[in-house]
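The instructor's notes for this session suggest beginning with a concrete chain rather than abstract definitions. Hand out the sequence below and ask the class to guess, before any prediction is shown, which regions might be ordered.
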Amino acid sequence: MPKPVLGPRRRTNPLIWCVAIICAVITVAVIIVGIAVFVVYLVVKPRVPQMSITQSQLDTIFFDQSGLLSIQISIILLARNDNHRAIANFQSTTFNLIFYGRTIARMTAAPFEIPANRTLQMNYVVQSSPIPLDPRESEVLSGELRQGIVVVEVTGTTRTRWSAGVISRVTLRLSLDCELRLPINGSPVYPHCTTKAE
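After discussion, reveal the predicted structure:
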């Protein structure tokens, strides 16, 4: 039986070895960073800070025969930071009070921060300027007044930023879309509408 003939052994190019070592180092670094992020997530357990409407009531409403509307509503907003170790910052906070598709008042807040595991209650008394209603809007409002309820919406956004550990800071835009059905006798309602991350 003849023996197979083997050619000379070829050596691997050193450039190939360098590329392989660099890829191995990058792979190990990515794995270590992934494990570190996972451990930080388990320790910090980040939660998105929220804002919610906890109470509202119709203080006064003025609606005359000419279709002129003036309204005052008290609204309690609650900003909540459920993170155990992170301070939450809120900025660009603007919420609009809307009646039948028309903005009748605006609530804003200067930038503020909430310490870890805390809440901040913000009391707003929202007064609209006199608003002329068209005949259709006047008819809708007259029907609501007969039922003893005025329906308004609160919509708007805020931006929140907080640290999710030492690795990164998280910034989110939160939006609120809430329908308030307010009794005209001034009784408070508790809608518990909460912002949602966009």
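Then share the key points. The mean pLDDT is 87. The longest helix spans residues 14-44.
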